[in-house]
Design brief:
heterodimer; A: mainly alpha; two-stranded antiparallel sheet; B: mainly alpha; 4 helices; 0% strand; hydrogen ion transport (chain A); transmembrane (chain A)
């Protein structure tokens, strides 16, 4: 094993089974990148995930710019595709959870969140990039914090201080003796754990997905020697299958992320009972 | 395998967010949100609203056309019904008039017939009376003349006074009456 800091691929190209080379299993190191610019030890650097994040933003904006810059009443193909996506989130997620009247205000946020998360997830299977940006906790966390701050401020605005407390703790007199326990649990679950779970749900899914893809991809290459070739074929098929599966998971996780966002907003706006 | 990265990985906890990535993540999202929320989504919302209005306008137009067609159809039907009714009324009237006319003419004919018959009767009666009186005179005169010739003297004045002839004739009539 060489200690080459300029290595680009996730594994060494000359490492195969039966050649005295151990299986270069994917691990936490697969999620660390050498800075493309700057110093990794300081907080002033620019790496692959940042590049992908910004590039992803540009792609989303570019796509919607092309589709919605000069929209027509009778849409073209691109506008139709973009409209379908927009309408899916607007009607299928926002209107369904928050309702049309109150939800309209949050449509831009939720639509942005969905396509942002989806694009960041999609990087996982886009050739050359092949890394889900959301598998770095910082990206999901930023989004979860934005939603969290919005949720807190909305709850305060809607219910006032006491109302906020009741809303957060799920205050309900009918619970009787269990009330203190229920309130404690709700308080922790809503106020402290929620942003964490919201971010980690997305992060962990993409992290695991990327690890699985890496595992089969590396194995396909690693086994490509002698009798191992037969197993390499199986591993390669698994890579294809898992790529398709990831494609589904990426969209699903983006959907789940915005659905939870809408549920939180709805909870903040709802009158507590 | 990069030794450095592996060493780094041992120290790094994947759940501890690196700060620069947080900043770039926020920036990347703000770019997307800014463009979508401020420009692109309002754009498409406007167009979607226009489209909705266009579709609703079309529907409204179609509805108006349908309503008009319906009203015209109803008007037409009403006119048709009225015309039928009128025709029926006219036919009825004509029938009634015809019947009245026929009855009138029949009555007139009857009247004229009766008039003619009555006139005929009157005429016949008058003629008969005239004939009878003429006959009576003639028969009386002839009989007297005949009797005078037979007797040889004029019985005219006497006969007239004695009323013989009348009595004779009456008897004759009675006989005729009895023979009948």
């Amino acid at each position: 094993m060489s200690a080459d800091p300029t290595q680009v691929l996730a594994f060494e190209t000359d490492c195969h089974i039966f050649s005295g080379c151990g299986f270069p299993a994917p691990g936490l190191h697969s999620f660390l990148f050498k800075p493309l610019w700057g110093d990794g030890d300081s907080n002033l650097y620019f790496n692959k995930t940042m590049l992908l994040a910004l590039l992803g933003s540009i792609i989303i904006v570019g796509f919607f710019w092309a589709a919605f810059r000069k929209p027509k009443v009778v849409p073209g193909k691109l506008q139709m595709v973009a409209e379908t996506g927009y309408d899916f989130i607007r009607r299928g997620v926002v209107y369904e959870t928050i309702g049309k009247r109150e939800g309209e205000k949050y449509v831009p946020l939720v639509v942005s969140l969905f396509f942002f998360v989806w694009m960041m997830n999609l990087w996982s299977i886009i050739p050359v990039a092949q890394f889900p940006v959301t598998a770095i906790i910082s990206y999901p966390l930023v989004l979860a914090v934005i939603v969290y701050v919005l949720w807190i401020s909305l709850t305060f605005k809607r219910h006032g201080f006491v109302g906020f407390f009741k809303n957060v703790t799920g205050y309900d007199k009918s619970l009787g003796a269990v009330l203190p326990l229920a309130m404690t649990i709700e308080f922790f679950s809503n106020l402290l754990v929620r942003p964490f779970t919201h971010a980690v749900r997305l992060f962990a899914n993409m992290f695991a997905g990327h690890t699985l893809l890496l595992l089969f991809t590396i194995a396909s290459w690693y086994l490509l020697n002698g009798i191992g070739i037969a197993y390499a074929g199986v591993s390669f098929i698994m890579t294809i299958v898992m790529t398709a599966f990831e494609l589904f998971i990426q969209a699903l996780q983006a959907y789940v992320f915005v659905l939870l966002t809408c549920t939180y907003i709805q909870g903040a706006l709802a009158e507590h009972h | 395998m990069s030794q450095m990265l592996i060493l780094a990985a041992e120290q790094e906890n994947p759940l501890i967010p690196p700060i620069p990535e947080l900043v770039i993540g926020l920036l990347a999202f703000v770019i997307v949100f800014g463009f979508l929320a401020k420009k692109l989504l309002p754009n498409i919302n406007k167009v979607l609203e226009e489209r909705r209005e266009a579709i609703e306008g079309g529907i409204e137009k179609a509805e108006a056309a349908q309503t008009e067609a319906q009203s015209v159809l109803e008007q037409y039907k009403a006119q048709l019904a009225e015309a039928r009714h009128e025709a029926a009324r006219l036919r009825q009237e004509a029938q009634e008039q015809g019947a009245a006319l026929i009855a009138e003419m029949r009555a007139e004919g009857q009247r004229q017939r009766e008039e003619i018959v009555a006139a005929g009767h009157t005429q016949i009666e008058a003629d008969r009376k005239a004939a009878a009186s003429a006959l009576r005179q003639d028969v009386g005169k002839l009989a007297t003349d005949l009797a005078g010739k037979l007797v040889g003297e004029s019985l005219e004045d006497h006969a007239r006074q004695s009323r013989v002839i009348d009595r004779f004739l009456d008897e004759l009539e009675e006989k005729a009456e009895a023979a009948r």
